[in-house]
């Protein structure tokens, strides 16, 4: 019985958004499994760009768009009790289409992309949802393709995690991903990217985040 309940809970988390884009979705469950925390990493931006909205594929004042496969990432931020959390700042950062961070400590001999923000932020709505338009992450030396997430709000302990791409061959050798000992928790960090019907995006994925401690 416990295994059935756990499986049902995980399926519900993975399926958020299928019922009307998250609107009005509440978890009628006793407790959800918290998203696994991950290291913030060394490439958190030292300073903000003038354009740091939730669309990383365009930089204000520049006519071009970012190189790479455009992907929409959506999700809902929840407490372990299933309560949608409004007003949470969600930050993301990642490498560009060539695998380089927009950060002075990334000394790789790879191009910078002047049309890719590299960092973005969003604030969850009343139903706890967030949305980003970015590019499909690519592998970084020693790392599988991933997107860094940092969440913060008044009364909320800072929380960092990373989203990985389901099916990426590099996942098998990523030390941070495989450092998550619980297979179910590790699987919840893996997000399938599916063809998108949204204008301007080629792929879409959903990454719900359940915070271990929330007001």
Protein model, in words:
The structure is a single chain. The protein is mainly beta and 215 residues long. The chain is built from 3 helices and 10 strands, in the order αββββββααββββ. A hairpin with a 7-residue loop joins strand 8 and strand 9. The longest helix has 13 residues. The chain is globular and about 45 Å long.
Q: How would you briefly describe this protein structure?
A:
With 215 residues, the chain is mainly beta.
Computed Rg: 17 Å
> Approximately what portion of the residues adopt beta-strand conformation?
25-35%
**How many separate helices?**
3
Q: Which outline best applies?
A: globular
Specify the biggest β-sheet: 5 strands, mixed
Report mean pLDDT, rounded to a whole number.
Answer: 86
Number of strands: 10
Look at the helices and sheets and give the structural class: mainly beta
- Give the helices and strands as they follow along the chain: HEEEEEEHHEEEE
- End-to-end Cα distance, whole Å, is 30 Å
Helix-residue proportion: 10-25%
Ranges where pLDDT stays below 50 over 5 or more residues in a row are 1-29
Structure characteristics:
215 residues; 5-stranded mixed β-sheet; globular; single chain
């Amino acid at each position: 019985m416990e295994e059935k309940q756990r499986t049902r809970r995980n399926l519900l988390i993975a399926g958020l958004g299928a019922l009307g884009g998250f609107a009005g979705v509440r978890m009628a469950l006793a407790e959800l499994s918290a998203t696994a925390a991950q290291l913030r990493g060394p490439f958190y931006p030292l300073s903000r760009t003038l354009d740091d909205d939730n669309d990383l594929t365009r930089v204000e004042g520049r006519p071009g768009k970012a190189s790479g496969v455009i992907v929409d990432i959506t999700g809902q931020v929840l407490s372990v009790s299933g309560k949608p959390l409004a007003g949470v700042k969600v930050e993301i950062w990642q490498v560009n289409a060539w695998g380089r961070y927009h950060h002075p400590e990334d000394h790789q001999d790879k191009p910078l992309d002047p049309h890719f923000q590299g960092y973005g932020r969003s604030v969850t709505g009343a139903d706890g949802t967030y949305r980003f338009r970015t590019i499909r992450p690519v592998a970084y030396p020693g790392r599988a393709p991933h997107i860094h997430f940092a969440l913060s709000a008044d009364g909320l302990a800072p929380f960092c995690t990373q989203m990985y791409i389901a099916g990426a061959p590099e996942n098998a050798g990523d030390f941070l991903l495989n450092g998550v000992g619980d297979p179910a928790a590790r699987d919840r960090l893996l997000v399938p990217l599916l063809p998108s019907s949204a204008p301007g995006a080629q792929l879409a994925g959903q990454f719900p985040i359940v915070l271990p401690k929330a007001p």
